[in-house]
Amino acid sequence: MARTGRPRSFDRDTAVRQAMHLFWKYGFEGVSLEQLRRSMGGISSASFYAAFGSKEALYRTALERYGATHGKVMLVLHDEGLLPRERIEQALRRSAEMQTDPAHPTGCMITLSSTICSVDGGSVQALTLAERAANREAIRTCVDAAIKDGALRHDTNRAGLTTLFDGVLVGLSIQARDGVSHEDLDAGVTQALAAWDANSGRP
Q1: Is residue 5 part of a domain?
Q2: Which parts of 40-121 fold into alpha helices (H)?
Q3: Would 7 be classed as within a structural domain?
Q4: Residue 61 domain flag
Q5: Predicted model pTM
């Protein structure tokens, strides 16, 4: 009788979390099926495919888990109870803190895990590209709202300011992965916010 692999005997929730950490640390293409199986207690390939369908499907699930946990720091960009500047400031400061937390891989999974992929990884790359585009649009919305209510001058270069803060957000991930401290990243956020204040429409 052909062996179909031993029955699933692992906790799916734990398996997804472990896979998330692997993809976060090594990137989508840097993680092998063997690594994923080992992280799940050495399950067979048959059990892996029965549980997750494919490596790409597991990556999608892991990315969703990231968004529902560590990635929640970005939700503050949509908090209309805060002023636009406060939304951007809190998103950047919370990101700097989360991305340097030693309890998990450094940096941002959305920025680091599939920035560079082979042609075959295009669909995976599109997932994180869409997430980054959504963050950029949320920053642009904050800038536009501040111009509209007079917090920023009407002649503020909205595209330039949006690009600046989006660049800071993405840059935090690279620098956190390179070992830059939370304190230094947070200080960088303070300096970036000076660009907002330089465009202030109020005394």
Answers
A1: no
A2: 45-52, 55-68, 84-99, 109-112
A3: no
A4: no
A5: 0.90
